[in-house]
Amino acid sequence: MNISRLLNEIKEIAKRKNAVILAHNYQLPEVQEVADFVGDSLELSLKASETQAEIIVFCGVYFMAETAAIISPAKTVLIPDHTAGCPMAAMINVENVRELKRQHPQAKVVCYVNSTAAVKAESDICCTSSNALKVINSLTDTTEIIFIPDKYLGSYTQLKAPGKKFIIWEGYCPTHVLITSDDILKMKRKYPASLVMVHPECKSEVVRLANAVVSTGSMSAFAREKEAQEIIVGTEVGMLHRLKKENPDRQFFPANTQAVCPNMKLITLEKIFWSLQDMIYPVKVEEPVRSKAKLAIDKMIALSKQD
Q1: What's the average model confidence in pLDDT over 224-247?
Q2: Domain count within the chain
Q3: DSSP string, the chain
Q4: Are residue 32 and residue 48 in the same domain, yes or no?
C-alpha cells in the first residue's frame, strides 16, 4: 500500500471509530501528516481530553500515552508500538524516588513530565521543559527541591532559581546529549547569520551557546516570531519537519543530524493502521497510581491557568 493510500485509509478508519490521532514533534514526517494534532506530549494529551473522540492513538513514546490515559480515563488510549519507551524515563523508578524523599524529608519532588505514571504518582508536582522555573518558584514553603529525572533541565532551572537548593537526579536524554558545543560552533561558522535554539535537555555547554533555550512547543513560536532567515535547531531532528512546514520561507539546520531518537521512530503508518484496526496496544493506568499522578499534573496545570 503506498503512503497516500495508507494515509487515506487511516483517516477513514479513525473517523469511523471516532478516534483522534496525536503525533509528537519527533515523529516521522508521514506520521505527523496523518495526525490530527502535532505537538509536545502534555499539550497533546490536553488537546485530546477536550475532544469528543472516544479513542486516542498516541504516536510517541510510552510515558506520553500513559499521560493521556491519566488525563482521560474514560477514553481508550492506544499506542501503535508498545515497545516505544523513553530511556530517560527508565532511569528512575518508584524506589529511587522514595529513597530521595527519605533522605530529604523537607524537600518537594518536582517531576518532569518525561517520566512514568508511577514516578509521577510519587511526586508533589509535575513540570514541563517550558514551565519548570514557574513550578519551582511556586513552591514557597520549601527551599529544597528534588528534581527528577533530567539533570540537564534541572541544572538549567537551578541557575534561574538561586534561592533554592536542588537535589538533582542523574537522568538524561541519550538523544539530546549527542548534540555538543562543537556541533553548535561548527554550524555557526557555516551559517554565521543564523540564530541558535536548543532544547533544555541539551548539555549545559550547549545551552550556553544558544540564543534561545526552549521546549519543542516554544520552538515553533520562536521560529515564527524571529526575523532570522536561518535557524540552527538543537533537538531531535524530527522537529525540523514541523518547523519547515510552518515556516517555508526560512531555513532550518539540525545542530547534529545524528540526534535521532530510535524509540520515536518505531511508530509507522502501518502500525497506526493496525493499531486502529485491531485496537492495539491499549494503555491504562490503574488506580491509585492514576489519581495520584493526575494530582501532580493538575497542580501544574492550575498554576499555568493563573497567567
Answers
A1: 95
A2: 3
A3: --HHHHHHHHHHHHHHTTEEEEEETTS-HHHHHH-SEEE-HHHHHHHHHTS--SEEEEES-HHHHHHHHHH-TTSEEE-S-TT---TTGGG--HHHHHHHHHH-TT-EEEEESSS-HHHHHTSSEEE-TTTHHHHHHH-TT-SEEEEESBHHHHHHHHHT-TTSEEEE--B--TTGGG--HHHHHHHHHHSTT-EEEE-TTS-HHHHTT-SEE--HHHHHHHHHH---SEEEEES-TTHHHHHHHH-TTSEEEES-TT---TTGGG--HHHHHHHHHHT--B----TTHHHHHHHHHHHHHHHHTT-
A4: yes
**Which residue type is seen at 228?**
A
How far is Cα 98 from Cα 124, in angstroms, rounded to an integer? 12
pLDDT given at position 106: 96
Assess if residue 146 is contained within a domain.
yes
Residue 306 resides in a domain: no
Q: Tell me, what CATH number does 223's domain have?
A: 3.40.50.10800
The pLDDT value given to residue 306:
66
What strands lie across the sheet with 144-148, from one edge to the other?
A: 125-127, 108-112, 144-148, 165-168
Please give the residue range of the domain that contains residue 103.
89-173
In a domain, 21, yes or no: yes
- 80 found inside a domain: yes
Q: What percent of the chain has pLDDT over 70?
A: 99
Q: How many percent of the chain have pLDDT more than 90?
A: 93
Mean pLDDT, residues 272-292 taken together: 98
Identify residue 115 by its one-letter amino acid code: S
Write out pLDDT tens, residues 17-71: 999 999 999 999 999 999 999 999 889 989 999 999 999 999 999 999 999 999 9
Judged by phi (left if over 0) then psi (alpha if -120 to 50, else beta), residue 18 lies in: left
What type of residue is 158? Q
